[in-house]
Amino acid sequence: MTECESMLKELEEKAIRMQSARKAAKAPGASEREVSDCKMLEQEYMGLHKRTKAMVDDRGSDSDRKKLSRLEPPTVH
Predict the structure, then answer these.
(1) Which of 7, 30, 61, 65 could pair covalently with 52 via S-S, beta carbons 3.0-4.6 A apart?
(2) pTM for the complete prediction?
């Protein structure tokens, strides 16, 4: 597994965790902790996405670029 593939896998896993955290944060009766955890995961995802994009742009394959384009772009909520 190349370094790009490894970072893309980590980004995919973080995206899944972030989606789960968003659901928990938006659920009725969500605690402040759940909302805070979601915001923290979003920030981590944004940073990882930025680093991964830079690496893929620099030395990634076409396959890596396609995989990155399918992942959710970072947004601030």
Answers:
(1) 7
(2) 0.86
Q: What is the DSSP string of 20-45?
A: HHHHHHHSTT--HHHHHHHHHHHHHH
Task: Give the whole-angstrom CA distance, residue 65 versus residue 44.
Answer: 20
Q: Which SS3 state, helix, strand or coil, does residue 73 take?
A: coil
Mean pLDDT of the chain: 92
Q: d(Cα 15, Cα 29) in Å, to the nearest integer? A: 23
Q: Which residues have C-beta within 8 Å of that of residue 27, sequence separation ≥ 6?
A: 34
Residue pLDDT, tens place only, 60-69: 999 999 999 9
| pLDDT confidence band for 14 (50 / 70 / 90) | very high
Tokens found for residue 39: 């915001």
Closest by Cα among 41, 12, 11 to 24: 41
